[in-house]
């Protein structure tokens, strides 16, 4: 068993990616505690959230992201990115899946990792799998600048799609409706409201998440 912080060090995960995954896991943890989920279900969701962006370095246009590169710098991260592409390929989602498999996590956790991401919202809602919905929703609540309301994040996505084709815009609108439905589904039986999930509320959980252990 390895602590997640040790795993991040071994894989040389960028600090900003680490912070994002910690925050997503913290949001998911708060939601799990507000529902009648078993400790096993909560552990699976939290681990999936801690792994869900492990391969994202592959997709970054590093020259456009100077704020993410300190203190090691552009040349260092470009070299790491090239190594990752040679080892895991050029699809960040498949890379994340391969890393999770290397770590020896359960098939259920692999399934939850695969369910996280904006394009999976509609499928997660239709399947009505609460664990998938929590993991995917938690990711949607965390922007590069911390925890934000779901509607703010969805507004960001609408702006990102403003120049897309009509078909892409229709698909995006369906996903926005899906995530709104997921939020309603999750909090219908929760002891908290979505507004209670804030940066301040999850910050206290971040230190303990660094000690979460993962099979390896």
Strand coverage percent:
under 5%
- Helical stretch tally: 12
Q: How many strand elements? A: 4
CATH architecture: Orthogonal Bundle
CATH domain class: Mainly Alpha
- Label the overall shape: globular
Roughly what percent helix?
A: 55-70%
CATH topology: Hypothetical protein af1432
Number of domains: 1
Describe the main β-sheet briefly. 2 strands, antiparallel
Q: How do the SSEs run, as a string of H and E? A: EHHHHHHHHEEHHHHE
Secondary-structure content class: mainly alpha
Quick structural gist:
The protein is mostly helical and 216 residues long. The chain has helices at residues 4-11, 15-33, 39-51, 74-88, 92-102, 107-115, 121-127, 130-140, 150-160, 166-187, 199-203, 206-209; strands at 2-3, 142-143, 146-147, 213-214.
Please tell me about this protein's structure.
The protein has 216 residues and is mainly α. The protein has one domain (2-211): Hypothetical protein af1432 (Orthogonal Bundle). The protein is 62% helix and 4% strand. The strands form 2 sheets. Strands 1-4 form a two-stranded antiparallel ribbon. Strand 2 (142-143) and strand 3 form a beta hairpin. The radius of gyration is 17 Å and the shape is globular. The N and C termini lie close together (6 Å). The model has no long low-confidence stretch (mean pLDDT 92).
